[in-house]
Amino acid sequence: MITVEGLGIAFGVKPLFRHANFVVNGRDRIALVGKNGAGKTTLLRVLCGRQMPSEGTVSYPSGTTFGYLPQVMAVADTTTVRQEVVKAFVDVNRLKEHVEQLGREMQERTDYDSDDYLQLVDRFTSAHERCQLMGGGNQDAEIERTLTGLGFARTDLDRPTAEFSGGWRMRIELAKILLQRPDVLLLDEPTNHLDIESIQWLEQFLTTTASAVVLVSHDRAFINNVTDRTLEISAGRLIDYKVKYNAYVQLRRERREQQLRAYENQQKEMADMKAFIERFRYQATKAVQVQQKIKQLEKIVPIEIDELDNKAMHLKFPPCARSGDYPVICQDVGKAYGNHQVFAGVSFTINRGEKVAFVGRNGEGKTTLVKCIMGEIPFEGALKIGHNVQIGYFAQNQAQLLDEQLTVFETIDRVARGDIRLRLNDLLGAFMFGGDASDKRVKVLSGGERSRLAMIKLLLEPVNLLILDEPTNHLDMASKDVLKEALLAFDGTVIVVSHDREFLDGLVSKVYEFGGGKVREHLGGIYDFLESRQIDSLNQLAASKEKTVAETAPRPSGNAGYQARKEQQKRLKKQQRLVEESEQKIARLEQRVKEMDALLMSETHATDMQLIEEYTAVMRQLDEENIRWMALSEGLEQLQENSI
Questions:
Q1: Can you tell me the distance from the alpha carbon of 164 to that of 519, in angstroms, rounded to the nearest whole number?
Q2: CA neighbours within 13 Å on the CB side: how many for 211?
Q3: Whole-number Å distance between alpha carbons of 450 and 361
């Protein structure tokens, strides 16, 4: 689909990479990796034609469509969510209008046997099939399924986009790109603004889509679950590993070990040659051998060793005072904004030394409870901070609180204490502030750079309770490793609000799940929590939440109440079963559509009328089933509301 030959990209004198050659095939799932500044984002922009390369070519078939999601983009604030997402279908709607025009023309004409009329029929059939291929028949269902998958409630769809935060507006842009069904998806850090459930939905979407996928992400679990091929930019070269990320890490380690052995052997061989030349340079009897050694030495091509992207940096928090046994105690804590109850009846105790995670969909109150703990906002109930607790807080807007007039080095130098002062340059390098970057003033740093600097500053402050709100959004894998290692060695208490499963794995021993106005405690790590909740899809999460709500809701008393609950539960289960059966049927139909998509793209089956007729019939069934699913889902919602 995409052929890259001799590609090179340079800024100034030093090129980011040169002589890159690779092919992106129709169903490839590719992870693009490399240290910050290696050229990953630039390569994505070159692939979709938004930037020209310094050398080489990028070629693809005429009509190939691209969906590109940058890390930062300007978003409109003049429409509702639904109206904004409908823009994804502008080309489809234009094609539908063309199909309707051709249909009207066919109805008006009567020269059915003429060549001109037959050509009109061919044009109509071709346009109609293309419209179906592009998803022109079930827009409303596709929009709703995609937006709910990315975390929006149905009630959100008609709200103005201006009411949503930047992260939610990025989800709207992602939804538009996914709904366009491009031939190639180019995604730059797509998980930065998603919670765990939405990330898992996106994983499922990307693994089943007919598009080719090239993505940049620092979320290990995400790229392992989505991709099966890894392109690495390192030492000015692009290396193609046809394996998942975890296997690539192992292969890369083995490759570097082989390079080191070969390099050492070559250095020894060159040293032996030089010693021979120096020893016998002036002996006439050895003149021929000396000249041979000189020529051999000149012909040797030095072996290059891949540069290490992960610095061997180890960080420990400075010693801190011992806190009381219970740093945080919540008793019936609640918070409401007007008529909206964020959560209520929250009761838990965090013990000294525990590392816990706050997880849940965005908007369920994770950051709100953190602000209650910090004393930044009023709340209901009792919330006690333990004896001698010193809090270090990393907020999502922490970067905005830095002194813009200081340099990077000065910012860190003012808070560093003890032996770490001797290793400030190593620390800054591990967080991508090595060399001249440490002399930059804070006011010229990007948002991501400020976040990393704020994180370093926090790591150096002597505290015994760390509260981190989405700390990994702007950290690459090396920086996340440094942070995780430091937190594991930290003997204080840690509360982490995060959607990064790989970061949380092995770090936390308790998970607090936010949802439905409640906070529920789960013992064990993040994957124990996901397994216990059986969260393999967003639909399962919704069903699980509905079950929890049904279990905790007040019930009528007496035998009549029991019989009523029993009948209600029977109706609920039957409706849930119908919804699940409909979803399974949709999945089967969509799978068949994908199979036929692949067949119709080949020259052998492109004009197979039997296959085209089947495709049209399956698409019609899919449209009908989507409409049925929406009706069943609405009925299920009504039953659930009546059961509360």
A1: 24
A2: 24
A3: 26
Tokens found for residue 571: 């109706």
Q: Is the pTM value of this prediction over 0.70?
A: no
Phi, psi of 33, rounded to the nearest 5 degrees: -125, 165
Distance of CA 609 to the CA centre of its chain: 40
* CA 450 – CA 411 distance, rounded (Å): 11
Spacing of C-alpha 148 from chain mean position:
17
Q: Any residues with CB less than 8 A from the CB of 567 and at least 6 apart, and which?
A: none
**d(C-alpha 409, C-alpha 434), whole Å:** 10
Amino acid of residue 206:
L
Instruction: Read off φ and ψ for residue 580, nearest 5 degrees.
Output: -65, -40
Token pair 């996914």 in the structure block, residue: 178
The Cα 350–Cα 330 span in angstroms is 9
Please, are residues 42 and 36 in contact by the beta-carbon 8 Å criterion?
no
Q: What digits encode the pLDDT tens for the residues 59-96?
A: 988 878 898 988 766 666 678 888 888 887 777 777 77
Distance in angstroms (rounded) separating the CA atoms of residues 466 and 394:
8
Backbone angles phi, psi at 544, to 5 degrees: -65, -40
Contact 505, 526 (CB under 8 A): yes
Q: Extract the runs of DSSP E, i.e. beta strands, from 376-471.
A: 380-385, 391-394, 465-469
